[in-house]
Amino acid sequence: MGDDEKVHINIVFIGNVDSGKSTTGGHLIYKLGGIKKDVIEKFEKEAAEMNKRSFKYAWVLDKLKAERERGVTIDISMSKFETTKYHCTLIDAPGHRFHQEHVNRHTTEHALLAYTLGVNQMICCCNKMDATTPKYSKGRFEELVTNFSPLLIKVGYNLSDIPFIPISGFVGENIIERSTNLDWYKGPTLFEAIDQIKVPKRPSDKPLRLPIQSVYMIGGIGVVPVGRVMTGVLKPGMAVTFAPTGVQTEVRSVEMHHEGLIEALPGDIVGFNVKNMSVKDLKQGYVASNSNDDPAMEAVKFTSHIIVINHPDGKIPLGYTPIVDCHTSHIPVRFARFVNKLDRRCNFVLEQEPKFLENGDGGLVEMIPTKPMVSETRVELSLLESSRM
What we know:
alpha+beta; Rossmann fold; Elongation Factor Tu (Ef-tu), domain 3; 3 domains; 6 helices; 20 strands; cytoplasm; GTPase activity; protein biosynthesis; nucleotide-binding
């Protein structure tokens, strides 16, 4: 397949702290020629000097000095690579802000959060197979698959669509080439499994929505917002409006991985230069839209379907004000009214206008943002209060 025919997809590594996300992603990039051998050798030398020998591949993605010193991913890192079918943007997300003692529970929460946010294709990598007892243990791999499979089914995933792959992100087992140490495994390697992903649907016919992740001032170019196209199409010359402020401007150029685009489609993570704007005019959480096609607007209030996974107080009263992550915004919202309590398995209404929701409950909640915020109808929301909700 020619480069022009390849589809762009995003791949995110999720998992707990120290599960090997950055190392696996970095080793994948290295094996595919995305970084030179002398750079890896430099990382290896620096890692040894900091007594972190196992972090040489992680540093391909962990670019910040603070991340290297602490050995964890603090911000979201992105790199690119290609398979036979796809242009891939690899996203390495932080694991968790605290050390996790109950890894199984929090891995389940990661899967639930991914499913809720619309991630419907998953590859499960059982990492650090070089550290099992005995090494590369088939029994340990089968135990992990047996324990984790029911949790994925409970979340909503179809196991027939999910490959489980035994790997070693550090050694490189089953990353690209098939491992001789894991010759009992007959399924795809990580690289092969990525190439088997189904082409995602692209809602390019809908109005443009591009939540802003970050904003940069680049010398000689100007202000460059960065974000992922959720719906619609972004093109140079397009008049765009940024909500919730309503400020309007024109797009000068659009780039992805430092290459100019004539248009950006849903799923593309792009930077775009805009006219006559200051960095102070834009913030993370703002949403860019086509000024001439149903532009985005501020949401004064909205109703959301939530599930209370676990809260330390056991129940949530009216007036509760957690942080809501909706697209790239991160804003406190007040629970103004509980519309109803729902059976989380079938959405059957159990009670109208309850006074509170308890752990395990689902329900519709009317929410009022404490700061200007953009939200679309029928959008999935992620509510996080120290990851307890």
